[in-house]
Amino acid sequence: MNTHNNLKNPNKEVHLMASPQEKKMPLILALWAVPRSVSTAFVRMMIERNDFHVFNSSFSVYYYFSKDRVFDRYGVKADESYDYQAILSSLQNTPTEKPLFLKDMAYYVKQCMSKEFLSHFHNTFIIRDPLYALPSLYKIMPDFTLEETGYEQQYRMFQIVWKSTGKVPVIIDGSDLRENPKAIVKAYCDAVDIPFIPQALNWQPKKKLPQMELWKDWYDNVISSASFFPSKENKDD
Question: In angstroms, rounded to a whole number, what is the distance separating the alpha carbons of residues 110 and 156?
Answer without folding.
Answer: 9
